[in-house]
Amino acid sequence: MSWFGISDAMKIAFLAFGILVYLLPVVVQRINDVKAVYLKTVFTIGATNWQTIKSVYIPSVLSKVSDDIRVLTAISWTYIIVAELVNSSEGGVGALIYLKARQAQLAKVFAILLIIVLIGFLQDKYFKYLDRKLFPFKYQSEDHSEVSFIQSIINFVLTIVGVIFVLLFLLPSGKAFLETYIGDGVYVIFTIVIIQFLIAGKNYWKSYQLKKAV
Known about the structure:
Elements: H1 8-32, H2 36-44, H3 49-83, H4 93-102, H5 106-134, H6 148-170, H7 172-182, H8 185-213
Helix pairs in contact: 1-3, 3-4, 3-5, 4-5, 5-8, 6-7, 6-8
């Protein structure tokens, strides 16, 4: 607060520094975990220091740090609530939880928490999708046979919840209802849901084209 005041810049800086405390030792550990066989291989073929960093360290570290960032993003949601307690008049889900708790409106507090869980779930699915696209080699030997049924149930529930949310958002009375509980965050959730639908549609279209080709 001494550096950035009590505006949104302070909250963003608080989240950045708070996550950096967790992320820095994780990155150091991931660097130390790089397998020696890769380093010996590039050394044998005469790679320079920059080539070693580019071809070994960056792919290996980033592919593992991506999973760590997913976990730290979940932790950051607790920091958001703490950060928004300062100057809560500016709004936000954290400030809204604090306000409803002070007013003893526990039902609304739990409703907001459920919304946060939904956002976190969608966020995690989106990060997982990006991880598969950026680092496909991590999933080449993965066996999906044991989780296909569970994954299908999760996808079904997620689709139903997303459809309900979109329908409420498109209806004037439903949109007003959502804004009452989550404020401007309704637009963020709507954007995430639409992105998830686009991703699901793209995957379905690829699957359809593959079956058609076969």
